[in-house]
Amino acid sequence: MILDDTNSTSLVVNLVIVGFHHKKGHQIEYSYPLAKESLDEQWSNILSYALPDGAHNREKDLIYFHIPSLDKETNVQRTLFGIAAYRQIDAN
């Protein structure tokens, strides 16, 4: 979940669900409101933020990160605050 630090009406800017496939690696399973393809181009590193190396060694965890805003309308460079929560589930 990517949060906005301004006084806008909604604090949630984007919601991205990332999964991990044992053969394909990190994959975006769901994205709102941006399309998956748009995220791949502009935030190519969001997958490694959401599920970092070594995540398989932990049952669950919460990760906090910062990512540059995609909003180019203002001349001010903004940083968005991200939260990634993951847990392992039984393959059965």
TrEMBL record:
Pfam families: Avl9. One of its GO terms (cellular component) is cytoplasm. Residues 12-91 form the AVL9/DENND6 domain. PANTHER family: LATE SECRETORY PATHWAY PROTEIN AVL9 HOMOLOG, LATE SECRETORY PATHWAY PROTEIN AVL9-RELATED. This is AVL9/DENND6 domain-containing protein. It comes from Adineta ricciae (Rotifer).
